[in-house]
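pasting for the record
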Amino acid sequence: MFIKKVNLALVTLCAVFFQGILSLELYSEERINQWKVDIVIEKKPTEELIKSRKDELKEKIRREREAAEKEGNKENGKILGGLIDRIKDLKKQVEDKVVPLLKDKDDSNLDKKEEDDINAPVLVEISISGELLEINNKYLSLLPTIGANEIINIPMNQVTSVTRNIIPNGVEDIIVGDNDFRVLLRDGSELIGEPTSLNEESLILFLKNTELSIPLPINEIIRIDREKVPDGSPDYSFPEFPKKHIASLSTGEVIAGQLLPSLDSDNWLRISSPILSSEVPLSLVNSLVFPASQETLEEVERQLAQEIKIEQDGNNKLPQDDKIEVNETEEIKVEIAEPKIRNLVSLSPVGMLWADKVQVNENEVIISALGKDGISIPRGSVESLNFGQEGLPSSAPVLVWGGYSDEDDEYLKTVNSLEGRIPQRKLLRSFAKVPDPDFVRTLKRSRVLLVPEMEGFRRTKMKESMEVEGRGCPTWQETMRGHLKRGGNIIFLSPTGEALSFLNECGFGRLSSGPAAAGWELTEEGKKTGIKLDGFIKNVNASYYYRRSDPWEVWGQAQGGVDSGILLGRKVDRGWVIIFGSDFYQQNETIKEVLHSLVKFNGRR
């Protein structure tokens, strides 16, 4: 009887043990399938909020009036007694710009935009975690982790993003192979994989961490670059060959010409020019740059036109001058294309693909992209989905954040320095003290976050703002890292003092001020930024230098062997964090061009 009880106890213990293992496996699998869904719901503003918005508008008008008066006083100080014409011009400026600001605005005097801003609905952001079941054209189906065990269907027009809570084991450990290339596409997509073949229509790319081979249309490719370049290979700076394909080989040669199908194999690359035709295996290619398809077409048409000679045989003779009839030209209406709304699919461990449509089932993410429908990607290879994104990474806006900057000095001068280089509509502005929903939403639309000198930053002030205004908001570190994970870049201008602690709190590493110099010069590592400056670059007022500190790369080295730099950068996730020690209090064309190159920088050149 005792033996039977012992056996029964052992059987029970084994059952509990194996049930525990099974539960653990199910729990792990369940956690991997957990996704965070971000949704936005519109609510009507309360009367208190409307009143607060009106007060903010009045305060903004007051600041603009003071800034205008301050600028007017500066101009008056520069005017000499005998320059009557200049005085008249200044008077006209004051009448046109300052006087309207002096008028108090009441509710009946608001323009339509201001009235719309005051009465704009409140956007409430909500995050829900759970098991993602399906995404179709109308709804997202989710089984929430907390609450009643019931499936909820969320309208897709309310969903902004879906992010995997836990990356499957092994994905982050995947390393870049010798045959992996980064492919940049004209629609802003960026993929990493192994090119397996090339023909006259497409490049076949085997995507990293998937079983998917995808044909990429030739006319949609900007360039492909080998991720792991062998030691001793040349850099990626090319001579200018407009309207031609350019190939950089691991043997050191640079070939320019027209890309044509290989005569022998689709594993080879053939570039033909009027003088020379070269054919090399894909395995020797380090980088390949593609011209815009329209540029190539125009070049071919131009060459053909030069070869055509018109014979005046009587049938096509030119009309006499007195017989020329001039037809009245009709007015041509130019249609401005609306910004295209797309969805961003981020892949694990790297890569992103812009899709027109996204659907999700139990095992796959099915997208429409690059003019093709039904592209199937394993769910395990997808890290996140962002819906309703406007614009493209290559042409997305630049967000200039001045929450702790001097709005009327360095911030304004920084924005003005990009005038004529970047369209004003591409320069978004924010003075948020905390990463509130408006700031986060604007940042998700942007490719670059530009931070002018944080002159007014104090840790105590930021902490107070987060406690008062930032309740429920993500931390600055979460916000910044989220931008970098989406492939965005962050540029800090002249961070000093306590502003350096902000970088450290965001997880970018410690930096300290370094020995100054009379100027600086670009390093070999800095050439990837595309800055086209050689030799010594003089400082402007004010310039700051930083001590060399791993893992930061020094791109602008202090002159004279001083161990510090004015321009530094480091790769974080899919993006770059860049430090440029010029605060733009004073500026010249050289410094402006440096900033423009940094804004355009996409990680590879």
